[in-house]
Amino acid sequence: MKGKTIQTDKAPAAIGPYSQGIKLGSLLFVSGQIGMHPETGELVSPDFAPQVRQTLENLLHVVKAAGGDLDQVVAVDVYLTDMGKFVEFNGIYQEYFAEHRPARAVIEVCALPKGARVEIKCIAGM
Fold first, then answer.
1. What integer pLDDT is reported at residue 2 of this predicted model?
2. Is residue 118 helix, strand or coil?
3. Is the whole-model pTM more than 0.85?
4. What stretch of H or E contains 31?
5. What whole-number distance in Å separates Cα of residue 107 and Cα of residue 64?
6. 110 vs 22: CA distance, rounded Å
7. What is the dihedral of CA 86, 89, 91, 95, to 10 degrees?
8. Domains and CATH numbers, the chain
9. Helices then strands (H, E): number in the chain?
10. Which among 4, 30, 39 has a CA at the least distance from the CA of 119?
11. What is the DSSP letter of 122?
12. Tens place of pLDDT for every residue, the chain, 126 residues?
């Protein structure tokens, strides 16, 4: 079974050999997004909060490009370079997932592409 590639210019272009998203049947798999500005390909800020917001915006735009919305997200994987930012992350995350609460994992990692401080990927049911 071959999936449909999801591509939007409202999220950053892939920085490697992968797609922004793949829709396979009723599932959408969104690749890890970081806080890159879609037009410049650079991180929006060295600061954590702006990176988190941009990362979530990028994720949202890929989901929307597939015809969905965040209320269809069923699982989220979050990678933080500093677990000490967990509470701050949750505060921003709740702005995007207020009522709808997908399954989620938050994992601390030692480094992310482009020096990002957060990366998020998700699966949505379409």
1. 85
2. strand
3. yes
4. strand 27-33
5. 26
6. 27
7. -150
8. 4-125 (3.30.1330.40)
9. 2, 6
10. 30
11. E
12. 789 999 999 999 998 999 999 999 999 999 999 999 999 999 999 999 999 999 999 999 999 999 999 999 999 999 999 999 999 999 999 999 999 999 999 999 999 999 999 999 999 999
3-state secondary structure of 77: strand
Please provide the size of the chain in residues.
Answer: 126
102's tokens: 């997908």
Q: Residue 126 and residue 110: Cα distance in Å, rounded?
A: 33
Instruction: Tell me the two tokens of residue 81.
Output: 């370079």
Residue type, 36: M
| Cβ atoms of residues 96 and 54 within 8 Å | no
